[in-house]
Amino acid sequence: MKTLVVGANGQIGKQLVGLIQDSGSHTARAMIRKQEQASHFESLGAETAIVDLEGEIEDIAKAAEGVDAIVFTAGSGPNTGADKTLMIDLDGAVKTIKAAEKAGVKRFVMVSSYDTTRQAIQEAPESFAPYVVAKHYADVWLRGTDLDYTIVHPGRLTNEDGTGKVQIAEEVERGDVPREDVAQVLFGVLDDDSTIGKEFQVVSGSTGVKEALSHL
């Protein structure tokens, strides 16, 4: 399986590309914004595609040609304003979904936010609400397609070392999860067709990733 990782230079995306390349059974194409980011991925043996998510759908679709799956891990980051949140986390996500359809790629995995319900929007702090809104509508758009989607809702992301142990369900108690473990979950999802059409929350836990996914 060849997977286009959108937002590959982010912390989760970079680890996912590494896992894919180390697997021996999958290959990655890293979609990145700048040429100077390419050397890291090329050293792993991964293909690269230089595409700006604020650009055209056709550019993303071209990057998706010939792949079997797309994983959207891109995000505007915590230090940008609501404008970038709108452009990347909503518009960038929707354009990637449309690009998948244009390129004929059926499998689509979305990294969302822990809770993107209407209630979460209403309860979010003012500074965080635009992010939740963006993720909410990106998720809504994906659910309305014919793509073989999975939506992953991670808890509070940390840079702690991953344990390979998680808790996964449609709803779990709010908690932390290392980015490394989220990458492991995303890789597990790509290998598990039973996750198609499902969405779930994930936090640190006591169950191995493969087993946790099998209980969905």
Automatic annotation (TrEMBL):
SUPFAM superfamilies: NAD(P)-binding Rossmann-fold domains. This is SDR family oxidoreductase. Residues 7-192 form the NAD(P)-binding domain. It comes from Bacillus salacetis.
